[in-house]
Amino acid sequence: MLTDDIQEVLLTEEQIAARVKELAQQINRDYEGKEPVLVAILNGAVVFLSDLMRHMTVPIRVDFVKWASYGSDTRSSGVMRILKDLDESVESRHVLVVEDIVDTGLTLHYLLENLRARNVASVRVVALLDKPSRRKVQVKPDYLGFEVPDAFVVGYGLDYAQRYRNLPFIGILKPEIYAGRDTPPDPV
Ligand code: IMP
After folding, report:
1. CA 133 centroid distance within chain
2. Largest interatomic CA distance in the chain
3. How many of the other CB atoms lie within 10 Å of CB of 149?
4. What DSSP line would sit under 77-139, residue for residue?
5. What pLDDT does 184 receive?
């Protein structure tokens, strides 16, 4: 069973659902009278996006991007490339980036730079999780679900080697699952 690989449940399904609803309510208030484009970062943000958007009452558009690092080590190279770009133009639009977890901050840093260059009306970030202890570049989500400790977490869209995304809760992965590697798994 997938759940056998979990060391500890950090956030239950109920805790996540309650917080996601609160975030959506706050976003609804802030975007009153606007039609934001929710830009979700594939693949990890899809579960969060699908729950968040169903609590949103302002009209929204949805688009997706997928980024990857150059070379094998995301963290040392820090250079990202686009695997899938937005389908529609975001010029003059209010963009809300939907991210599963902010870790080193590199993904968001590059994405925000890239979006700002497209002359958007505004850009903000909603992240479900934040691991501030691992930050390499200064980025801060405008809306945040939960701060988490420096541990590798899976579930609710987050994976290790493409597994565990379907767990309804967020848990810490047992270190023996990625034993033999001296760093936490490279998530991209
Ligand atoms: P960053 O560019 O280092 O901020 O990393 C962001 C991406 O790395 C996230 O969108 C996740 O896909 C992935 N990631 C970072 N930490 C974790 C984790 O603990 N579990 C699963 N994926 C993670």
Report:
1. 16
2. 52
3. 10
4. H--EEEEE--SS--TT-EEEEEEEEESSSHHHHHHHHHHHTTT-SEEEEEEEEE-GGG-SS--
5. 61
116-170 residue pLDDT tens: 999 999 999 999 999 999 999 999 999 999 999 999 999 999 999 999 999 999 9
In angstroms, rounded to a whole number, what is the distance separating the alpha carbons of residues 40 and 22? Answer: 19
Instruction: Read off the tokens for 45.
Output: 């943000």
Ligand 1, pocket-test mutation among 101, 153, 164, 183, most atoms within 8 A of CB:
101
- What integer pLDDT is reported at residue 178 of this predicted model? 84
Supply the pTM of this predicted model: 0.94
Say if CB 124 and CB 107 are below 8 A apart.
Answer: no
Q: Which two tokens stand for residue 25?
A: 């309510």
Q: State which amino acid sits at residue 86.
A: L
Secondary structure of residue 19 in the 3-state scheme: helix
Distance 33 CA to ligand 1 centre (A): 33
Which pair of tokens denotes residue 32? Answer: 């009153």
Instruction: Name residue 39's beta-bridge partners.
Output: 63, 97
pLDDT for 80: 83
Q: Is the CB of 155 under 6 A from ligand 1?
A: no
What is residue 76's DSSP assignment?
H
